[in-house]
Structure formats: C-alpha cells, structure tokens
Design goal:
The structure is a single chain. This protein has 132 residues and is α/β, with parallel strands linked by helices. It is built from 2 helices and 8 strands. The strands form 2 sheets. A 4-stranded mixed beta sheet has the order 1-4-3-2, covered by helices on one side. Strands 5-8-7-6 form a 4-stranded mixed beta sheet, with helices on one face. The radius of gyration is 16 Å and the shape is globular.
Length: 132
C-alpha cells in the first residue's frame, strides 16, 4: 500500500497583529536563520513562509481573528546545535524554559537526544531537538 502521509508540509503560527508578526519574522528569519520561501499581503493580511529545512513555517498576522483551538503543546525544530540556538534566542531576550540537556528516552532501542525549550514571540513553546 502506498504511504498516505509523507511528512509535515508546514507549521502554522498566527501572530496577533502586525507588530507580533514582525517580531515572529525577526525571530525565525534573523535569529534562527530560516530563509524566506515567500511573503504576501499587508497589515493583518500579511503572511510569510519560511524554510525549516525539511518543512515550512507559515506565519500570518491575522491571529486576532482566530478562536482558541487545538491541543498542540509545542513543536520541535531539528538542530544539531541546540546550545547555539539557545544562546541566540537568549541573547535576543527570549525566555529559555528548559536549559539544554542530554536525555535518553528509555525505549527499545534507547533514544538519545539533546533538547531545550523556549517561548517564542507569539507565546509558542519551541523545542530545539537533536536526535543523536
């Protein structure tokens, strides 16, 4: 049978207005280095897609129009440079909620990783994740 789901296409982040939208673009593009794929619109109709490396992040300025929904707790960005990501985010003034640490999930086989968490510009919880 052909595989139905082949990956994650994009993560959607809704910024609350143009000021938070610009902060989000600065955070993901300028601080974390995600290149732009495309941008569109103005004001609360503005949006952008950035390349995460193996999927896209869509950021829209129309978050004030959204109702609270869903149960996603956080998303993880893959990186072999967890400590560097945390350093850049901390220098930019964002809150680190979990410092970088090595963890081995006691699964079969064991799952070694390095991870850290921060809060992004729209209040989103972000995990920096390196599968060793």
């Amino acid at each position: 049978m052909e595989k139905l789901i082949t990956g994650t296409h994009h993560i959607s982040l809704k910024a609350h207005g143009t000021e938070e939208f610009e902060k989000a673009l600065h955070f993901y593009h300028d601080i974390l280095g995600m290149p732009y794929v495309r941008r569109w619109g103005e004001g609360t109709d503005a949006g952008a897609m950035l390349d995460t490396g193996n999927s896209l992040m869509e950021i829209s300025a129309n978050g004030d129009l959204c109702k609270e929904s869903g149960s996603i707790r956080h998303f993880a960005l893959a990186t072999s440079q967890v400590d560097k990501a945390v350093e850049l985010v901390r220098e930019a003034g964002y809150q680190i909620t979990t410092e970088p640490s090595d963890v081995t999930i006691p699964s079969q086989p064991p799952f070694p990783l390095r991870m850290a968490f921060c809060i992004g510009p729209c209040g989103e919880e972000i995990e920096f994740f390196w599968e060793k």
